[in-house]
Each structure stands twice: as structure tokens, then as C-alpha cells.
Amino acid sequence: MLEVTDAASKKGQQRLAQLNNRFVEADSACRQSVTDILERVRNEGDAAVLDYTNQFDAPELDVASLRVSEAEFEQARALVDTEFIETLQFTVDRIRTFHEREMEDSWMLTREDGTITGRLVRPVDSAGLYVPGGQGGSTPLVSSVLMNGIPAAIAGVAHRVMVTPPNRQGGVNPALLVAAREIGITEVYKAGSAWAIGALAFGTESIPRVDVIVGPGNQYVAEAKRQVMGRVRIDMIAGPSEVLILADDSANPVFIAADMLAQAEHDVQASAILITTSEDVASKVSEELEQQLIQLSRVDIARKSLDDFGAILVVDSLEKAIAMANQIASEHLELQIVDPWAWLPQIRHAGAIFLGSYTPEAAGDYVAGPNHVLPTMGTARISSALGVETFLKRSSVISYSERALRNDAEHIQRLAKLEGLTAHGNSVAVRVRGEE
Which of 17, 27, 78, 120 has its CA 20 to 30 Å from the CA of residue 288? Predict the structure, then answer.
């Protein structure tokens, strides 16, 4: 299904160049549409949010139904089965256990002259969690609720607000509501796309303004987050999902093809890339992709994704494969090779790393524990997964004794004079002179 290409060939080099330069911003039409939407939400509040929601999601939704009611939460619990509850609680425990290790502590340093310096770590006051609708609510993205909401809770965020697009009838999939309630989120609003991001950034009569906005979404959501960034903190500007698999001759082609298709079924713009040292593995993976593809519920999406953004590249050494992986800086990186732990220290850039043939990327999406909100489009070179630290801020703490200031006074005044800031120097001088 996918042509096997020598990475050293002209075609292979062209494909690698495309991968290394895949960062894409929203087109001008999307940018302008989002700008207009945000401006309306800023000026009109609930009226704008409801107008867009009525146009695109729920034609009959009114302002009284914008917030999910307690009755809707209770009804949702009755509509999900016990197996879902069991899996939900299992997953919550895994994610919580992992993210509790991420919590930072405040700390202080002291010097003998009485100087105390340190860092005070505090959570933001509020966070907005965006959860995509998932095909009109028919495929609820429960994992997005958990991956965004649990780290915020561990950080100590007092006010967590969730927004998600309603279905045509103005409802929210019960699985999403049960998941939200399971992790302590009781404030859920029926709004999606750029107008939901605007509501969280500016606040409306019904939807409160927040300090941090997190969560995945389409290009309109991503562009809205980009435009409000600075007014609020965001997790990242996410692009299409991606997986890069490194394989040697020990790898199982069936596993590799399955993992590539698991990525391809996300979206027609998702990318699934294999770099392997084995021509035999490469050709068998290509065959497996065709055989497994026809069994998928999202066969058309996966096929177009592979046709447009998939690749199978052959290299002559794992050293070259690792070097390419560090250049590509993929969201998900799988090492289906002999002794992957021995190669782990050489990986510098990846959102999440999956070691060994029995570690599918899907495990990380759901129950392994680490966060699945990861940098895409090569931004793993400069950024990290969403985590507890996304919801924390750090204040410096400084305390001088009289003796400490006298000890440092000359150095402070010297630097202030060099920078031409005489008032800075004087603020030290008056204290030193005043005690002489």
C-alpha cells in the first residue's frame, strides 16, 4: 500500500525534508474567521456563543441550558454501564498515580549573612478544559477529560471548567459527564470550537474567564488558542497527530502496521511513518497495511492519511534512524528494536517514547499513565507533554538582612551604574548611608 523508499534516495530525502518542515499555521481564511468569532464573543458574550452553537451544533439550545444541570449529571450516571465505570476508575488511578510524581515543591536557599532566596510554587486560580465533540457526540473522548482534568486537580487548581460541543439535541454524551464528575469537575458548558475558547479567555455572562486553557481540537480551536495566548496560558498549539516507528529486523510487521493504522484513523492529516533497517520488514509492513486497513471502521480516513502523509523509509543503520528521529521530533516515537533501552539515551526529541514491540502507542493514549497531550509538528524539540506544571506558576522569594545588603551593595551599585540606572543604585545607597 505504501511504497518502500530508500531514505538516501532523492525521493527519500524529499520526504525527510517534508517531515522536518511540517509545522503549519492556520490558513488566512481560518485566522480571519477565528478573529471575527473571538471579537464577537468578547463583545456579545453569551449571545455570540449561543448564536454559533445554534448554527453549528444544537439549533434549539438556549441560555438556560448552556450549563449542564445536576439532573443531566445524574441521568448520565444511569446511562453508562458498570464495565465503563470499572475502566474509568482504573484509568483515573493510573493517570493520577503518574502525575502525582510531577508536583513541584517550593524551596529556599539561605546564606550565612542572612540572605534568603527561593521559589514559591502556586497553582493558577482557574483552568478551562476543552473536550472535542467526537463525531457529534457519538465517540466521546473520555481520555481527553482525564488527561486534562487530573493534572489540574493535582496542581491544586480550585476552579476547573469544562467546555464541549453539544449534540444536535443539546445534550452531552453521558460518558463525558460521568468522567468529569469522577475527577471532581461539576461545571460543564455546552460550547465548542473557537467560540468556546473565546468564552474561556474573555468570560461571558454564563461562562467564567479562566487563567489556563488546555485540550485538543480542530484547526479553529488551535487558532483560537493561538490568538488568546498571552491573555491566558495555553498548553500548546497542536497539529495533526503523528507516530514515528523505528524498527530493525527483529520487529513484527503485523504490530507495526497495526500501530501505523491506529494513528492514521485519527484524521486524514495524521501521519504514520516507519523508518527501518530491514527491507524485508518494510515490504511486509506495506502488505500488512493493506490487509488490516479493510477491517477498520474508519477505512476511508486511514487510507487517505496513509496516502497523503504516510511513509516507509529504509536506512542502513540504527544510528541513522535515531538521527532522523531526533530531527523529526515526532509526537509519538516507537522503538520496535532489539534492546530499546540501550538506545533510549540517544533520543533527544520526542513527545512520548514507547519501548519494545509490546508497547503500542494506544496504551499511552489511554491507561499507561503519562499524558497523551503531546507536542506535534516538530515542536517536541522545544516543548513537552501537558502535565501538572502546566497549571503551576513560580514566584521568586528574596529576603535580605542589613548585613547581607551591605555585603552586596558595591556589586549592585556597580552594575546599576553600568546600565545607567542611577535610581537603582541609589535605592541601595540610601540604605547603606542611612545606617553608617
Answer: 17
Fold of the 4-23+239-368 domain = Rossmann fold (3.40.50)
* φ, ψ (nearest 5 deg) of residue 265: -75, -10
Give the CA distances from residue 335 to residues 68, 119, 247, 436, in Å, rounded to whole numbers and listed in that order.
43, 38, 6, 68
Report DSSP state, residue 229: B
> Is 331 tagged catalytic?
yes
Can you name the residues that pair with 5 across neighbouring β-strands?
Answer: 313
- The catalytic position among 99, 266, 332, 372 is 332
Q: Which CATH class is domain 28-107+122-234?
A: alpha beta
Is 332 tagged catalytic? yes
Total-model pTM:
0.94
Q: Which amino acid is at 342?
A: A
What lies within 8 Å, CB to CB, of 190 at 6+ separation is 53, 57, 58, 61, 65, 66, 67, 68, 163, 164, 165, 166, 170, 172
Q: What type of residue is 162? A: M
Sign of dihedral through CA atoms 245, 251, 256, 258? negative
Pick the catalytic residue from 223, 331, 334, 361: 331
Mean pLDDT of successive 10-residue segments in the chain (436 residues)?
A: 93 94 88 97 98 97 97 97 98 98 97 96 98 82 97 98 97 97 98 98 98 95 96 94 97 98 95 98 97 95 96 98 98 98 98 98 97 96 97 98 96 98 97 74
Do the Cβ atoms of 349 and 380 come closer than 8 Å?
yes
Cα 265 to Cα 322: distance, rounded to the nearest angstrom: 26
Per domain, the residue ranges of the chain are 4-23+239-368, 28-107+122-234, 400-434
Question: How far apart (Å, rounded) are the C-alpha atoms in residues 429 and 412?
Answer: 10
Strands (E), 94-166: 107-110, 116-123, 126-130, 159-164
Tens digit of each residue's pLDDT (9 = 90 or more) over 276-335: 999 999 999 999 999 999 999 999 999 999 999 999 999 999 999 999 999 999 999 999
